[in-house]
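User: Predict the complex.
Assistant: Input components as received:
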Amino acid sequence: QYVPVKGDHVIGIVTAKTGDLFKVDVGGSELASLSYLAFEGATKRNRPNVQVGDLIYGQFLVANKDMEPELVCIDSSGRASGMGVIGQDGFLFKVSLGLIRKLLAPKCEIIEELSQLYPFELVLGMNGRIWVKAKTVQQTLIIVNILEACEYMTAEQRKQALAKVSGN
Amino acid sequence: MKETPLSNCERRFLLRAVQERKRLDGRQCYDYRNVRISFGTDYGCCIVELGKTRVLGQVSCELVPPKPNRATEGILFFNLELSPMAAPAFEPGRQSELLVKLNRLIERCLRNSKCIDTESLCVVAGEKVWQIRVDLHVLNHDGNITDAASIAGIVALCHFRRPDVSVQGEEITVYTPEERDPVPLSIHHMPICVSFAFFQQGTYLLVDPSEREERVMDGLLVIAMNKHNEICTIQSSGGIMLLKDQVLRCSKISAVKVAEITELIQKALENDQKVRKEGGKFGFAESIPNQKITAFKMEGAAVDTTDVEEQAEEIITKADPPSEVFTQPILHTPGTAQIGEGIENAWGDLEESEREETADEEGETDAPAFEWEKIKMEDTSGTKETEKDEPIVLSDSEEEEVVILEPQAPSRKTRTQATLKQENTSKKTFNKKRKKKRVAH
């Protein structure tokens, strides 16, 4: 179970659009709120194009045990720096929180080895959610399966699996 | 607790994967997940695992007066429970629609098919009959509870032994297991449910849908069949319209699957029987392996990894035709040249690429887009060929325009992936500078 922490970057799913607020599910015990003004270049007239069911990559502005958590897609200087609505294609899946922290470490072997295979886009949320997009469905599925299995595989098993993929 | 909502992204991906006949765990369209059956120490207790979906079945019996209109028949009672440990959305005490549907289906499958001989459950006509109660608990929900529950039900019934009875005149003696061996129920046949998930108005069909696939499916068809190819129950939900030949095809598939599963069940029952007879250890403690918190195991997913990597030739042949052709190449920085084919410039798409690049800084693995790969390929081929036209060297990369030559012969463009990665980073930092300049103008 994920506990929201201020400053954490997470992937959320928009569940409701009420007035000028979005309700986003981040995998915690409560839904987080996201104001429509918290996007880069958003004004009252210029609303961001967010629908229910879209994926959002944002960080927590407020996250304590007394209040409802708040997400923003903008950093302190007002720029998006990678946050916002995540693109339409690709696949979202869940892994354990420990694996996410391992993948976000500076020199993560898993990511380096995977990037040797073929190009793909990857967004990691601290709430255990990962979004992957590769050129074909097959490639995406391979990455999803390898990442899910990385939890349980030793480094050697992983290298073997990757060798099998690149060998074919 | 509410369920996690399904994002549009996942839905789209799953539908696309189904269209390409690919499943998340690498199965084929008609493949079942691994079925594992284990028995407990008591007779009539079993756990069935269908992939990660687990259902526990327990059978018990009791002597009761029979129903008034069926005085010579025993009573069968089925109960399916969705325990909250199966899925966060299942709450105790709440009669959800899913629960009612599953209950009705199991009841119809096992009761109406007359797989159990109820006449044999009669002890004294009109006074005492056996009431057999089958309790099914869903321990984990990963899709297709129907099939797992039906297998658990029938296996538990086959495994169960009721106490032996003898009637002398008016006296009924029920023997304890120590006095006389308990007697198995008389079962005529084993009906097993097979579920089919339909997508896109019946165009695509999957057997044994997993939880994600169930969320995006259009409709579900359940066929309960036994190994003698007799259909016991058929149910279609979701309101999709099925053609006659689709239903026939499904019934043929389920005949094959049911035969396999029945064989598996027989083998499991025999094994258990053997172990008990030989006095060996039996029960859950033996069959369900010890799982320590620190030791993880996962089943390998067989994902098809053939033909995953694209060859450079494929990329070239699929490229878009050139859009603009200028006469002179311009060297952006000394040592590189842009003499590529004019593919669609990704320059115009500033926001997206900007986000991709800044996302790179946050530790994501960013993939060069399709177009960038091409440009990089041209780059290195350019460095090898500076004897083309007279290049104009601009010392700082302050220029704006991308100058493109006529496309070269395809043979030049074959390169390996390894060198591609090296160009990656240098090209990226270079691109950033260019883009910023563009915005300023």
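The domain at 23-287 of chain B is CATH 3.30.230.70 (Ribosomal Protein S5; domain 2).
Let me know if you want any component modeled separately.
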